Task: inverse folding
């Protein structure tokens, strides 16, 4: 039996998904289910002066209209609302808690009715009067008032602590023979997952609730609901077996879950609340980021100074931020570096994680600046990266557990044909198009988190592997099954995976690209425990051929427990269990990251982009992308490629299409829908090639896995911007690069 791990196994949940058998949070149903429709504010800041429920209540089929005035009890201290991903500083948003309006389109009422249509119609009849207050939603108006970030206390946020400065960057910058300094801007962007946020709360009676909830972390939501509503963990079960995209928007519990539970508790009925597409813009977003980068270099193309100053946005009530600037000093050899990061507080919801938070935006600025420095140095942009290459994490002066970025550059450049590039901007043409080639480097953490896995092996040769983690669409079900099948020596079809259920063994939210590495190594530990138990039983069998076997000398393969070596002795697993009189073996193991602290752990990539720009019209097409990725051992080449492909598409969107537009006269998002918020469509996506370079890593974890949900987007926007510059000779430093900016 060939190993499943590392091969292109199709998704084990693929049939369920394409046939509709896979159920999402708002597709679970029970008899007598009620439907809630959310009513949102029309002002960005102030107080609710009056809510008139009467017209809505008169509609036949309406059961109730819940507001801050008539809702059931919710916790009244801030701490109760702090989920695992809540920022250290601030007080989380509480829906329907009081009369305060903190952002436009904030939920102010929930209309509950017998059908979703009636609920939605009645919601339109609600009249709400406000006392307005002055507000600010424009980051440029607030940038001078931005305050330095305070390092977070939350241990999960250790990776977000800004790195220490080194050397004397200002002096080095002043004396550098070649300098580049510029400001780069990334606007607010929204996640826009296909699946709308939804919760189906099943009122089980005897005080128990089952909450089908769209989330990246069922146990995070369970803990949160328990503390908000004063319920016991055994009384709230949160389920999220499938998820139609999260990208970080589902890391924190969203307000529709609170509203659905509020209504279920008030009415003692089962209730479903689903957001509309426009209401999805009342959740978190990628924070807008103003970045100033200065690079100082020697004429030979080595870096001597880096300074990176960032302003990002958050709400007035919570300080959300990530480590946006430290990527600059990490990546390249440079003796002098410093960072600053300030937060602009706006009357908007709290910003949040969005695919590769901080690196997607921070590395965009760095890699654009590096391209501009290469131009100033009259050096090929790839050659500049090679001259600045570092074998050590420059921020902490540690070696990497592995870093095959050199190979990414080499294989990526070769696949792209980079050596045929004419360095001169506007030098490559094809009909009415200017053709540009740009490149950039990508980098992201290789994280691991404590996680528990339970395996139950039954005498019929079937194993159930369970963990409370999520599969947010990345392929977690599949890689879990692959690793378990190989370690247990069973066919893939004999493995069933259970996840997305708060009653299963402990797992943190699925995010940060840490799930594959964490859960796969926990499966190894649990499978080893199963093997050890089988060996213990085998040794007790009369005339056992494994009487002297030590755990490390035996492995499970082809349904047998066998010694490893040239003359294997073996016994069938079924036989061991039959003779021992056991019909199931259950083992649960918790693994914690025991990554060697003396080494730094990162994934890397090299992105090469061809952009064609219509000379008169400024229309941009990204016609070719090569993304060469070093992410340790690849568990599944098919799902891994899909992750990188999707990330590249998003990077194209970040470069050319995406921006959440706010009309600051009203403090309101004006493109809160799929017609006006532009994302790449089929016509925007051409040839994308994904390469995984070989990157053995003997120390990061037993399987050598790093994870790759997010690395694929890093560097893409910069590579596109650099290609557009190469095509046109015009540098656009605020995203997205639209034709009006090119023609201006
Ligand atoms: Mo990811 S932004 O950690 O879901």
Result:
């Amino acid at each position: 039996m060939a190993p499943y791990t590392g091969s292109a196994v199709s998704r084990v949940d693929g049939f369920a998904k394409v046939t509709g058998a896979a159920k999402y949070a708002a597709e679970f149903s029970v008899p007598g289910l009620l439907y809630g429709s959310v009513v949102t504010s029309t002002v960005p800041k102030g107080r609710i002066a009056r809510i008139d429920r009467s017209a809505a209540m008169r509609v036949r089929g309406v059961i109730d209209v819940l507001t801050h005035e008539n809702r059931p009890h919710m916790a009244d201290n801030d701490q109760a609302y702090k989920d695992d991903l809540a920022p250290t500083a601030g007080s989380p948003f509480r829906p329907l808690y009081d009369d305060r309006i903190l952002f436009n389109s904030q939920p102010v009422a929930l209309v509950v009715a017998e059908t979703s249509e009636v609920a939605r119609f009645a919601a339109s009849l609600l009249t709400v009067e406000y006392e307005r207050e002055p507000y600010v939603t424009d980051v440029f108006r607030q940038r001078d008032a931005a305050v330095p970030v305070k390092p977070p206390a939350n241990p999960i946020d250790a990776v977000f602590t800004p790195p220490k400065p080194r050397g004397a960057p200002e002096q080095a910058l002043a004396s550098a023979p070649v300098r580049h300094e510029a400001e780069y801007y990334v606007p607010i962007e929204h996640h826009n997952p296909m699946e709308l946020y939804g919760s189906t709360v099943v009122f089980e009676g005897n005080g128990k609730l089952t909450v089908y909830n769209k989330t990246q972390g069922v146990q995070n939501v369970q803990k949160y609901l328990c503390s908000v509503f004063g319920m016991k963990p055994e009384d709230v079960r949160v389920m999220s077996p499938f998820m139609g995209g999260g990208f970080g928007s589902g890391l924190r519990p969203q307000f529709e879950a609170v509203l659905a539970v509020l209504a279920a508790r008030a009415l003692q009925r089962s209730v479903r609340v689903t957001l509309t597409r426009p209401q999805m813009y009342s959740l978190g977003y990628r924070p807008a980021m103003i970045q100033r980068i200065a690079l100082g270099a020697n004429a030979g193309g080595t870096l001597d100074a880096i300074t990176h100053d960032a302003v990002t946005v958050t709400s007035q009530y919570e300080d959300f931020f990530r480590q946006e600037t430290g990527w600059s000093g990490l990546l390249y050899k440079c003796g002098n570096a410093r960072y600053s990061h300030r937060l602009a507080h706006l009357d908007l919801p709290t910003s949040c994680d969005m695919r590769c938070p901080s690196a997607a935006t921070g590395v965009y600025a760095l890699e654009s600046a590096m391209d501009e420095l290469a131009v100033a140095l009259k050096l090929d942009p790839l050659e500049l990266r090679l001259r600045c290459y570092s074998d050590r994490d420059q921020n902490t002066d540690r070696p990497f557990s592995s870093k095959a970025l050199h190979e990414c550059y080499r294989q990526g450049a070769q696949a792209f044909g980079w050596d045929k590039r004419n360095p001169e901007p506007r030098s490559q043409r094809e009909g009415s198009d200017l053709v540009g080639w740009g490149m950039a480097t990508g980098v992201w953490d290789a994280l691991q988190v404590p996680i528990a896995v339970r395996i139950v092996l039954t005498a019929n040769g079937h194993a159930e592997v369970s963990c409370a983690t999520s599969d947010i669409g990345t392929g977690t079900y599949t890689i879990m099954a692959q690793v378990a099948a190989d370690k247990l020596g069973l066919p893939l079809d004999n493995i069933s995976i259970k996840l997305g259920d708060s009653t299963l063994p402990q797992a943190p939210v699925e995010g940060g690209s840490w799930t594959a590495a964490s859960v796969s190594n926990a499966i190894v530990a649990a499978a080893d425990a199963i093997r050890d138990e089988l060996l213990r039983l085998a040794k007790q069998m009369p005339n056992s051929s494994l009487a002297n076997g030590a755990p490390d000398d035996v492995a499970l393969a082809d349904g047998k427990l066998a010694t490893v070596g040239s003359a294997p002795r073996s016994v069938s697993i079924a036989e061991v269990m039959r003779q021992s009189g056991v019909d199931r073996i259950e083992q649960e193991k918790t693994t914690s990251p025991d990554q060697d602290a003396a080494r730094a752990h990162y994934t890397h990539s090299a992105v090469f982009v061809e952009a064609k720009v219509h000379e008169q019209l400024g229309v941009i097409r990204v016609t070719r992308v090569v993304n060469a990725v070093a992410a340790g051992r690849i568990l599944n080449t098919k799902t891994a490629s899909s992750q990188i492909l999707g990330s590249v598409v998003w990077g194209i969107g970040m470069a050319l299409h995406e921006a959440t537009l706010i009309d600051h006269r009203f403090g309101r998002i004006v493109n809160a829908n799929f017609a006006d918020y532009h994302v790449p469509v089929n016509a925007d996506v051409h040839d994308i090639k994904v390469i995984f370079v070989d990157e053995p890593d003997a120390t990061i974890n037993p399987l050598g896995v790093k994870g790759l949900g997010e690395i694929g987007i890093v560097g893409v926007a910069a590579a596109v911007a650099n290609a557009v510059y190469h095509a046109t000779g015009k540098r656009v430093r605020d995203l997205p690069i639209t034709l009006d900016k090119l023609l201006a």
In short: DSSP finds 17 helices and 31 strands in the chain. The pocket of dioxothiomolybdenum(VI) ion is lined by residues 216, 246-248, 251, 353-355, 357, 511-512 (CB under 6 Å). The two ends are 62 Å apart (CA to CA).
